[in-house]
């Protein structure tokens, strides 16, 4: 099957973003570009956990609702959530109302605070696991397996190797744009000039 599709602007793109019109902007401006902002990294790993068993479009269409419900994924604020916040979130029709995933996001904020105390920045920790693209489709990588294992050891939840690999793809830790995709070269350039953060 062809791995590319031609968008209305005539440029080839990764076939997965042909599924829905709102995927194209996400694919072109976010997916695969390197990210160092801790709040964005935390948001994404939480949203990937919420996606587990669902489509990314379900999460993407609710992303602004998630941001409002989780106070912009401010790590300190989410870490301080109480059972009253869990009840509030379970009643919020704008997000995925799954107790286990909600509680995992709160737990992971608490674990993120521990990582921040250790490394100074989540970005420095996550970028230790930067990977390289390989031909063909894959749902995990050696790096995502290693990162998942270490996160679980640190007490994080909903961070299996597949979830973590999707996080890595989106946050630029690997460039999984098809080589024939119009955005592949843009991401490759962004990664080439990118300086991975180091622990403070």
TrEMBL record:
Residues that hold Zn(2+) according to the record: 14, 27, 177, 181
Record-level Gene Ontology MF annotations: DNA-3-methyladenine glycosylase activity; metal ion binding
GO BP terms, alphabetized: base-excision repair
Keywords noted in UniProt: Metal-binding, Zinc
Pfam families membership: Adenine_glyco
The name this protein goes by in its record: DNA-3-methyladenine glycosylase I
Species name: Neoroseomonas lacus
């Amino acid at each position: 099957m062809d791995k590319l599709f031609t968008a209305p602007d005539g440029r080839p793109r990764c076939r997965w973003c042909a599924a829905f019109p709102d995927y194209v902007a996400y694919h072109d401006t976010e997916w695969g570009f390197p990210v160092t902002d801790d709040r964005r990294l935390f948001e994404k790993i939480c949203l990937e956990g919420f996606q587990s068993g669902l489509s990314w479009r379900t999460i993407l269409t609710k992303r602004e609702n998630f941001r409002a419900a989780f106070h912009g994924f401010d790590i300190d604020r989410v870490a301080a959530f109480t059972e009253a916040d869990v009840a509030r979130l379970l009643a919020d029709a704008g997000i995925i109302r799954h107790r286990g995933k909600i509680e995992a996001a709160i737990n992971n904020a608490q674990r993120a605070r521990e990582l921040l105390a250790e490394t100074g920045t989540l970005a420095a920790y996550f970028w230790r696991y930067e990977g390289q693209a390989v031909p063909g489709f894959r749902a995990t990588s050696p790096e995502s397996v290693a990162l998942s294992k270490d996160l679980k050891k640190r007490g994080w939840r909903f961070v299996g190797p597949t979830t973590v690999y999707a996080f890595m793809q989106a946050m630029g830790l690997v460039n999984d744009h098809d080589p024939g995709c119009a955005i592949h070269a843009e991401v490759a350039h962004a990664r080439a000039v990118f300086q991975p953060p180091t622990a403070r």
